[in-house]
Structure formats: structure tokens, C-alpha cells
User: Which sequence fits this backbone?
């Protein structure tokens, strides 16, 4: 093999390895995607209902950290996926919930009252 052929072979091997390393990047999901584990019961965030606005379909929740969004504990206003979800709640209720960004707003997709 000539020097030129050896150089081309090494260059192609290096490029192939670089592309392979980035092709299957499961450790960094794309923005807006939710890993399957994040939707499990273990991924629910604990919180306390502070205020309910049934007409607007919003609930104010004081919640713990949300690793899914790299968010610390805080109090936030969330939209709810279905206004009927608010019928079961009252201020002071302890809940577990799952939220996601829907239409540019954090929206509660699922919630459970904690007994």
C-alpha cells in the first residue's frame, strides 16, 4: 500500500468511528422528548395545591424538584390537560403529578391525590 492509500484508509476509519459515536446518542435525548421512564409513576412530582382557577383551567402548585426539566422546587401556575381534573382538587391537597410543555406552557397531564 502506498503512503497515500494508507493515509486515506486511516482517514476513512477515523471518520467512520466519529460518525458511529454520534449516530446512536441515547444519552442526550432531543429537546421536547420524554424518556419512557419519565412517564412512569416513579417520575411523578410531589406537590401541594395552592390555588385553583377552574374557569381558566389552571392550578397553582408548590412542588418539589422536577429532574425532568432540571427545575428546582418552586411554586408555579400550570394549565391542566382537562379542566375536569380540577373538580377533584381543593387548596391544601397533596398531589403527585406529571407535567410537560404543551403549546409553550407547562401543562399537567396526569395527577393523583396523595392520601
Assistant:
Amino acid at each position: 500500500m502506498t503512503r497515500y492509500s494508507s493515509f486515506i484508509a486511516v482517514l476513512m476509519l477515523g471518520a467512520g468511528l466519529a460518525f458511529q459515536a454520534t449516530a446512536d446518542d441515547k444519552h442526550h435525548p432531543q429537546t421536547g422528548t420524554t424518556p419512557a421512564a419519565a412517564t412512569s409513576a416513579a417520575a411523578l412530582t410531589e406537590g401541594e395545591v395552592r390555588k385553583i382557577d377552574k374557569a381558566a383551567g389552571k392550578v397553582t402548585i408548590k412542588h418539589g424538584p422536577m429532574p425532568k426539566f432540571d427545575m428546582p422546587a418552586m411554586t408555579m401556575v400550570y394549565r391542566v390537560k382537562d379542566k375536569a381534573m380540577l373538580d377533584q382538587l381543593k387548596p391544601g391537597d397533596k398531589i403527585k403529578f406529571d407535567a410537560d410543555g404543551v403549546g409553550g406552557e407547562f401543562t399537567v397531564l396526569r395527577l393523583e391525590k396523595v392520601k
User: Anything to note?
Assistant: The first helix runs from residue 3 to 23. The mean pLDDT is 82. Strands lie at 45-53, 58-63, 74-80, 94-102, 105-113. The chain has one helix and five strands.
